[in-house]
Structure formats: structure tokens, C-alpha cells
Write a structure and sequence with these properties.
Blueprint (H helix, E strand, L loop, with lengths): L16 H15 L7 H14 L4 H12 L5 H8 L12 H8 L3 H9 L7 H33 L4
Helix pairs in contact: 2-6, 3-5
Amino acid sequence: MTKNKKSLVTDNDQLSLLDLLRQEREERQFSRPGRLNMNAQISAAIKAGIRKAPKSREAIAEEMEELAGERITVCMINNWTADSHPHDMPGRFYSAFCAATGDVELIRLLAEGAGVFMLPGPDALRAEIQKLDEQSRELQAQKKKRLLFLQELEGKR
């Protein structure tokens, strides 16, 4: 007895995940005035990353210093996050910050501001594998068409 395969899409008019992501990105891009002035969003992402991190500011500073290869102190982190200070974290430290805190929201904000969606490593690999599968199916379909055409040309059909 064979099992019936259930369709993942129940409605022909239902949007795919990719279509939903595109639609959501377009709505966000055109609905925010000053949408690329990222100062407040970057500051909020840094503060949230520190708050969510399972480490102290001292541990974050030490790890960032090791990763960036430049001196980074707790005082610097405090200055970058204090509303009363005009100092911003330099962009060259963003990757080290994300690695040290385990939070990628800061880089996600920048990527999406540029119109790019990011996926964590395993998800990106799954997406790449899916793309390769689709290309493979397309190549197999093209091969099948050519084989049928060849058979027609040779009069075997």
C-alpha cells in the first residue's frame, strides 16, 4: 500500500517563503523614513547583544580584544553603549562583537539595510544544497529533452 504524499502548499495562491521574505523586505524598505540612518538601531542592537550574552562586559571585552587584535576595554564598551557619550563602536569591531556575544543582530541589521538576508551557517548550507538540487533537476530535465529529441532525429520513436 502506498502512502499519499501531502502537498506542502495547500493553496495555489499561497506565497512561497521566498516571496514572503521579498514582500516583507520591500514593505520595510519603503515604510521607514531615514531607514538607512542606522545609529539608533545599531546602538540598540549592541545594548541588547550585551544584555543577552551569557558573559560579563569584562569577558566580552577580553574576547573582542583577542578576536580583533586591538585593545578593547570595558570602559570602551561602556562609552559605546552610554547614551551620554557621543562615541560609537567602530564598524571594524562588529564581527568581533557578534562572535564574543553570540548575537548576530547587529550584522543582520546592516545586511538587511543593504537589502541582503543572512542565514546562519547550517541554514545557508541547506539553502545552497537546495539550490544545487534544483539545478540538478533542471539539468536532468534538459538531458531528458535532448535524449528524446535525439531519438526523434534517429527515427527511433
